[in-house]
Amino acid sequence: MRLGYIGLGKMGENMVKNLVDHDHEVVAHDVNDEPVQRVDDYGAEPADSPESLVGSLEQRRVVWVMVPHQVVGDVLEELSELLDSGDLIVDGGNTKYKETEKHAEMLDEKGIDFLDIGVSGGPSGARNGACMMAGGERSDFEHIEPVLEDLNVEGGYGYFGPTPSGHFVKMVHNGIEYGMMQAIAEGFDVMAESNLDLDLQEVARVYNNGAVIESSLMEWLKEGYGDRGNGLEDVSGRANESGEGRWTTEAADELDVPTDVIEDALDARLRSQESPNYQGQVITLLRHKFGGHSLDGA
Question: In which domain, by residue range, is 246 found?
């Protein structure tokens, strides 16, 4: 498939390279020149503006947008003035689902089709096989399904209903992730504080081989302890939060659903901003391993 791609950050650049590896024709744009040059060197077609990107595509145009949620509305608004009725936009970022509803309504008024697709797996997944959750019209989902098959691990994507189902399911995924990471951080904090002189890398290795709590998070933690030791040197104890956990608790409140674990995990991150601690270090390390986030807690 030939498609446009806007946003070449940690996720976007890797996803474009993955698409090129699978013989898709990608026209790529970013506000920064360096990643555009890198994907150009890799085999994508560069575009110096959204206008030139759209002009390089034939109808029915497909444009995948992978930008921070703070600017996605502006990008979609600009594209809506460039695309024609029947073209398709995919928002693959972590957009708040209520904003996604507004974006879909704006595009629908102009006859532009829209899919909201939440992406999990971090930069490594974007490069080697991700997990995706799609919302929108099923016919639009089926139109780009060959792309999804190539971008994801086997069985790693699904259609969940009309917009904003994809972003809603991804938001809850991230809320669950908050709770899991906090539980791991608390458990390893207990072991680090004990007088047993435990090798925490070895603990994580064993936990990740046949135990009930075996997971990608445990594998990343094992790697992190191997890199930095039990003390997690040079890893900030300030655990950042990027919105999705908070959005999950807000949605739960509106639905009158208790989310004690997710709320406590969010509160723990906020407390760590004021009082850095070992649990914050574990969470910062995990966020760095799967998402490329800074080790300084920024």
Answer: 170-291
Catalytically annotated residue among 170, 222, 241, 244: 170
**Active-site hit among 13, 17, 96, 177:** 177
Residue 55 shares a structural domain with residue 183: no
Q: Would you state the pLDDT for residue 100?
A: 98
Rounded to 10 deg, the angle between the 260-274 and 278-291 helix axes is 110
pLDDT at 298: 60
CA neighbor of 125 nearest in space, from 290, 295, 294: 290
| Tens digits of residue pLDDT in 130-146 | 999 999 999 999 999 99
Identify whether residues 151 and 23 lie together within a single domain.
Answer: yes
Q: How far apart are CA 29 and CA 147, in angstroms?
A: 18
Told to judge if 34 belongs to the known catalytic residues of this protein, a careful annotator would answer: no
pLDDT, one tens digit per residue, over 39-98 is 999 999 999 999 999 999 999 999 999 999 999 999 999 999 999 999 999 999 999 999
Is position 263 annotated as part of the catalytic site?
no
User: How far is 223 from 267, CA to CA, in rounded Å?
Assistant: 27
